[in-house]
Design brief:
The protein has five helices and eleven strands; from the N terminus they run E-E-E-E-E-H-E-E-H-E-H-E-H-E-H-E. It is α/β, with parallel strands linked by helices and 227 residues long.
């Protein structure tokens, strides 16, 4: 069971690293008894004056039974928000974990459809399915602006093989498919709409993909999004 919405934990950052040009990985202490379900998120603030009440949601990317917590966070440098501040926050500093939440949890076999940092709640789910030998026959369709924007490309390739499909909306390189995930794409590449669809990304992306899937025969119960 996830933590109470009233819980609050101050945790030390143990490790940070950049995994691409604007995405930073944080490994932090895991409080005793702290639990979450793959796909869930937590509101986080920075334990510094002026930042303690500025909360932003971030998905857990590690597995629940690990001894530490991991977050993969896109740094937005064009405005003075929490992620911009996190660029200067490294090992030894502290974060505050607030309420754990989220209904974007694994139910049954299906297709993951993600755009940009929308991949982050799926990382823990995919790692868990892989470790329990249940990942086969799942598919991931992952859209980014360019190849450089992909998060954990090598790991996703190793874990999902040919069931990992990359789409680029602004790529202009030989060997890559430059195409948006729209209604026509779904018709051409999904054979069955009587299965689960897990969708995460910008709100407009989630709204559009959900609408297309409904039109193509997917049921309301089979479309799993963060509400």
């Amino acid at each position: 069971m996830a933590n109470s919405s009233t819980s609050k934990h101050i945790v030390k950052i143990m490790e940070t690293e950049y995994i691409n040009y604007d995405v930073k990985r944080f490994v932090v202490e895991k409080p005793s008894g702290f639990t979450f379900i793959p796909g869930q998120s937590v509101n986080i603030s920075i334990n510094l004056p002026g930042w303690k009440t500025k909360r932003r949601p971030f998905s857990f990317t590690n597995l629940p039974d690990e001894d530490t917590l991991e977050f993969i966070i896109k740094i937005y440098r064009n405005h003075e928000g929490v992620t911009h501040k996190l660029e200067s926050i490294n090992a030894g500093k502290e974060l505050i974990l607030h309420d754990v939440f989220g209904v974007l949890q694994y139910q049954e076999k299906g297709i993951f459809i993600a755009a940009g940092t929308g991949i982050t709640p799926f990382i823990s789910i995919i790692r868990n399915l892989y470790n329990t030998k249940r990942l086969s026959n799942h598919k991931l369709i992952y859209s980014n602006k360019t190849f450089q924007d992909i998060i954990l490309d090598q790991e996703l390739t190793e874990k999902m093989g040919d069931n990992y499909i990359k789409k680029f909306t602004r790529e202009n390189t030989i060997g890559f498919i430059e195409q948006r995930i729209d209604r026509n794409y779904l018709i051409a590449h999904i054979l069955r709409f009587d299965q689960n669809f897990y969708i995460c990304g910008p709100q407009s992306f989630v709204t559009d993909i959900s609408k297309y899937l409904f039109e193509l025969g997917a049921s309301a119960n089979s479309i799993i999004i963060e509400e």
